[in-house]
Specification:
By secondary structure, the protein is mainly beta. It contains no helices and seven strands.
């Protein structure tokens, strides 16, 4: 039986950082990340992770990168047990973007 976390919002605020969202605490360690991708400027989507909410985030790896998209769809990415994430776009966005995310355990 799978266990799902609550939906959270990962927002890229272009006044702060045009290609990286604010940190999101998923509330627990999860194997997978469900992500609803809004309409975005054409880009790849990846996930950055950290052991703490206020630490230094780093790219999780190629296994969690989506193909280039303009958004408007949902996908599931391998998260590998992380709790603290940021959503990263491969190109700067021209407007604020809000991604819906939640963790999932097997």
């Amino acid at each position: 039986m799978s266990i799902y976390g609550n939906w959270k919002t990962a927002t890229i605020t272009i006044a702060t950082d045009a290609d990286l969202s604010a940190a999101v605490d998923l509330g627990a360690n999860y194997d997978l990340l469900n992500i609803i991708i809004p309409t975005v400027d054409a880009c790849g989507i990846s996930v950055y992770v950290c052991a703490t909410s206020d630490g230094t985030y780093q790219a999780l790896g190629d296994s969690v990168t989506t193909a280039t998209t303009t958004g408007g769809y949902s996908t599931t990415l391998k998260l590998g047990g992380w709790e603290h994430i940021k959503v990263k776009t491969s190109t700067n966005q021209t407007a604020n973007r809000s991604f819906s995310v939640r963790g999932m355990r097997y």
